[in-house]
Amino acid sequence: MNFHIYRPAANLHPYVKHYYYWHDDTTGVINLPQNLLSLGDQYMVFLQQGEVSCQPCQHAAFTLPQMSVVGHFTCSSQLKVKGPVKAVVVHLNAYGSYRMLGINMHAISNYYRDLAKLPDTNWQALATQLADTDSAQLPALLDAALANAMQHQAYNRQEVEQVANYLQEKDGHVNIAYLAARFRLSKPTLERLFLEVVGLPPKLYARMLRFKKAMQLLQQVNTPQWQPAAATGPQYYNEAVLKQDYVYFNGQTPSFFSTLGSNNNTAAVAQMPVHNTGIAVA
User: Fold this and answer.
1) Torsion sign (Cα): 228, 17, 179, 160
2) How many whole angstroms separate alpha carbon 270 and alpha carbon 122?
3) In DSSP terms, which residues pair with 54 in a beta bridge?
4) 3-state class of 125 per DSSP?
């Protein structure tokens, strides 16, 4: 398997986090690289070879087209990849898709949007270029294409970015009424704008951030058994709430925590908050 992570240009920050290049000549069902998809982020996927199907635990299954934008995933999603596979993935932040594409993101939560069906035909040209480009040249090609896409979007939603960034800074520990007052928005307006740009209600997004932080803490301390009070610190004051969120986002009981810290990697998108995996970074 050939899997590389590249850093985007500084002018694309914070909308673009990483570029992933994945090439695997294995035939049949392939395990997804652990850090390829993560709960709460969005992705542009340019599939050059192979087939990727997704089965969210709370939604109908779907197969990704040649080029698409996917996310947010708000539940466990099993990915089945039929190889050989070759793909380029653009890892976006919570509001990156809206900034690049200018489409209402609420329509694709736990689903995808086919880039070939958007009015802008530049994505098809980019997919063709990616297929004919050496992997080392991918960052420069993607930087140019995404910067061009941003320049051609009429954009006036910076206040939503500020709200999302504030939620991230606080790991989701923010009362929604306080959030609306802080940014001088009514609660209905805050919800409407957040759904349009991020694709999720702000309360659900905050809940997701708390859960992701708790999972990161659990993996760092490598608890041998279910010990949320010791492992997650201030993220959850109540064990029952943590269990409830775990079932909501992963579709299974918290008994899975007995395998945290082991090499038992699954293909559930909601179980992949880790970014430091030791895979080659350029």
Assistant:
1) negative
2) 31
3) 62, 79
4) helix
Do 58 and 85 contact (CB within 8 A), yes or no? no
Domain map (residue ranges) of the chain: 2-151
Q: Which residues are CB-neighbours of 179 under 8 A, at least 6 positions away?
A: 163, 166, 167, 190, 202
Contact yes or no for 41/72 (Cβ under 8 A): yes
Whether 69 contacts 41, CB under 8 Å: no
Length of the chain: 282
- For the segment 66-83, the average pLDDT, to the nearest whole number, is 85
Q: Looking up tokens 């805050």, which residue turns up? A: 190
Judged by DSSP in three states, 218 sits in helix
Tens digits of residue pLDDT in 88-124:
999 999 999 898 888 877 777 778 899 998 877 689 9
* Both tokens assigned to 10: 């500084």
End-to-end C-alpha distance for the chain, whole angstroms: 17
- What is the CATH code of the structural domain delimited by 2-151? 2.60.120
**Cα separations in angstroms, 158 against 18, 45, 122, 188, 190:** 22, 25, 25, 18, 13
Those residues with Cβ within 8 angstroms of residue 86's Cβ, 6 or more apart along the chain or in another chain:
22, 23, 24, 47, 48, 49, 50
Cα 120 to Cα 19, 153, 258, 272: the distances in Å are: 21, 11, 47, 32
The answer to whether 176 and 190 have CB atoms below 8 angstroms apart is: yes
Which residues contact residue 220 at a Cβ distance below 8 angstroms, ignoring those fewer than 6 apart? none
